[in-house]
Amino acid sequence: MKREELLKPETLARLRGLDIKARLVVEGFLEGLHRSPYKGFSVEFSEYRPYIPGDEPRRIDWKVYAKRDRFYVKEYQEETNLRAMLLVDSSQSMTYRSGALSKLDYAVTLAAALTFLLIKQKDAVGMATFDTQIREYVPARSSNKHMQLLLSRFENLSSGGETNLAKSLHGLAERTRKRGLVIIFSDLFDDPDDVLLALRHFRHRKHEVILFHILDPQEENFDFSSPLRLVDMETRKEASLDPRLIRAEYRKALAGYKKRLLRTCSEHHIDYNPILTNQSLEHALFRYLEKRRRLR
Amino acid sequence: MFSFASPWFLLLTPIALGPLVLHLLSRRKMRRTEFSSLFFLRKLRERRFRWLKLRDILLLILRTLFLAFLVLALSRPVWKGRFPVRLTRADLVLVLDDSYSTSARFAEITETAERLSGELTSGSGLSILTPSGVIWDTLLQDISVSGWETRLQNLQASQSGRDLEDAWKQALSMLEKSKTSNKRIAFVSDGQARALDFLKTAPIPSDIEVYCFTDRAEPPANVSILSTRLYPAYPLPGEDQALKVIVKATENNAQANLEVFTDSKLRERRTVSAGRESREFLFNLPQDAEKIRSEIDTDSIPADDRRFVHGAGAGKLKVALVAGQDSDLLSLGLRAGGGLEVRQVSASSAAGVSPQTHDLIVWDDVYRPSVIDAVTSRGLPVFVLLGEDAEDIPRVFRMLEESPAKGFEIMASSWLFSDLSVEDIREIKFSKYLRLEPEGGNTVLSFSGGDPMIIADTSRNIYYSAVQFTPEHTNLVYRAIFPVFIQRLATFAAGQRKGNEFYIGDTLKVRVPTGEPMFVETPELHYEITPKPADQGFLVEFANTQKPGFYTIGTETFVVNPDPRESSPEKIRPAELEERGIKVFPLGASTPVKLWLPLLILAAICLAAELLFIFL
């Protein structure tokens, strides 16, 4: 199977076992090019660089000074000091699907792939699921055994009820004390002001945040053809409507919502990634790696 | 009050409910689909859903209204509002047509008059005239004077045939005394052209508004028997025979009672529906039937048609009608009124008819010259219906083995037909406007504008008619014309010259040398009347000629008939009156407002609004 095929949602939907999916995705995607974004004291040497006024004098390598008669500062690469928390929205709305994968399937596969990727780099990974409240919380570890635990939790994830995204995120922000990378997978069906406030909470805790806004293509396009009665999967409330009459308005409202999220996330250095469930996972993984590069 | 010119379109009214039904059906059939969240839809609902819901309801209403207005417009509703003459205080002279032709419509005429009078504003003046005289005159008083209602309700159609010109002149002279600025004359008539024709040319004073309420109803359908034949023509021994009657009508869906007689007894009466296309009806016959006859039951003729049937008068002129039981003319001849008494005579006994028992013998049977000669030799005039079209008069003469040069005279065709439209004249198939140039023919009796249709052998007192009265016209024209035709001919043949023929309502005048009282004999009563002095001697005037029949004043006899022109179906065209500034309305209607155009405009507005909503 070609590498590109492995990353397609249709292919992944046919595969069984989340661990296999995750491994195939990651192996198909990258070849171990992964570094910790945090530089500092560590056992692994990274490089020399000329001394700049302001650098701590204790970091000057005096042996090099003796040889070159210039100040050089010795830099090291930290090995496993990235703590990543994968937060997956498991509300009922996430189970919606119009194609091969539901939003929850897509989020779980992506989270599993990232888990696999992070653990392989010896980073610590934790996970949490939430709907109206936090349903599961697994602190970050970096062992292979922990990875199996996480994959098992992801695989057995069940959808919950309604979404109270902001409340759950606030709770998780409080609970995740050590700074690290927070990756959120959600359809973000909540009041945008509350969501953004919760995201700022993570930033306040000095977390780096990647937000995957996962939507189904049908939610994006709203291209139902005939009048229908829509039933809210979370609240079971119904609305009779002719989609042709409100399609434009719907798309406009959604685009406005996304634009607002993008703008506010950008202001707070949150990496906002809208993604559709019919898009290749490669796209999402690239987004993650880009973020990692920026963090270096 | 609403009425509809094309009410059958109202059957389409349920179509207007179509959008509502479709709306409800579409709601019922609406697919139920799960969707992740109505989060954005809820947000939309706040801003736009209300408008969309309102738009849906508005579209539904607009579509329903569009269809409703369209259906209503197609049914051409007319709002019969109040009369136009009531709007202001005015002096109104109502001229009611009570001529013989209005008899079938007279209730509507009086009803219209009553409504017109009843809606006059306080302070208005009212006079009611008919050609027969003044019914009510409070023109210079207030309308509040009661009594006119009773007068109107007691009013009946006369048998006279006067037009309305004299009443019009009288109305004008009455209004001359009126001091109000609103002077109005309203004619209420059946719309017969001869009664109102004068309005096309009569000078109309500028200060008088003229209204005309006329009946625009079409003449009733004419159902007729085209032909009859036995089926099978040659039955085998013991095989039943049937009579096949082929019926046709001038309009579709015209109903009439078709009767079949066998041996002079009514065998079967059946209500049939005839149309413009001929239809066949089969009647089973008994095996031993000998004389078979079929006819349209005259009692099934619509009421409108009854005005053409002349009232039966006391029989003075006795006419023998030689006709078989199957003669189409027999029943009509027997009904001929106006001073005629028609008796059926068989061909075999016709030779015995004499001037002592009869005044005229009408021959509608196999032509038997020997019998006719025997009758005429006794001095009795004979009228022979040849049953031929007079298209080929020379051939008629050849058939009679006579020469037109030998004392035959051509009688001009009947003025009785002059009132009929060209189509009607063609219908009765007389002569096809024959242009015969007779040798030495003299016109002895003017029946019409000059076309010959009756050939008179004046030397032998025989009158031949080449007019073919076909069974197609057993209802309307035929019924209307034939009795009058016979009546007139009988009057002529019996020596009653035209000068002594009058119509109902006419005044009979006789000059006498002395002023001694004289007896006047009428069909009903006897009067004694004293002559009035005149320029040369004395004059007797008798105006009470309300019944048809013979009137004798002293030694002079007058024939008083209903005016045959009253049978004319020709109506005056409203456009001709409107050209003269006369406001014309249908009889019984008042200020009719035709609503189809406003409704069509409303439908168009609904459609435009709907399109606007859709594209907004």
* Spatial shape of chain A: elongated
In total, the number of domains of chain B comes to 5
CATH class categorisation of the largest domain in chain A: Alpha Beta
Query: Please, how many helices of chain B?
Result: 13
* Rg over C-alpha atoms of chain A, rounded to the nearest angstrom: 22 Å
Number of domain modules of chain A: 2
Task: Give the averaged pLDDT of chain A, no decimals.
Answer: 79
- Strand percentage of chain A: 15-25%
Question: Strand order across the biggest sheet of chain A?
Answer: 6-5-4-7-8-11
Radius of gyration of chain B: 33 Å
Counted beta strands of chain B: 31
**Helix-strand category of chain A:** alpha/beta
Number of H- or I-type helical stretches of chain A:
11
Sketch the major β-sheet of chain A: 6 strands, mixed
The fold-level CATH name of the largest domain in chain B is Rossmann fold
Measured distance between first and last alpha carbons of chain B: 40 Å
CATH architecture of the largest domain in chain A: 3-Layer(aba) Sandwich
Helicity of chain B, as a percent range: 25-40%
InterPro entries (chain A): DUF58 (IPR002881), VWF_A (IPR002035), vWFA_dom_sf (IPR036465)
Protein name (chain A): DUF58 domain-containing protein
Organism (chain A): candidate division WOR-3 bacterium
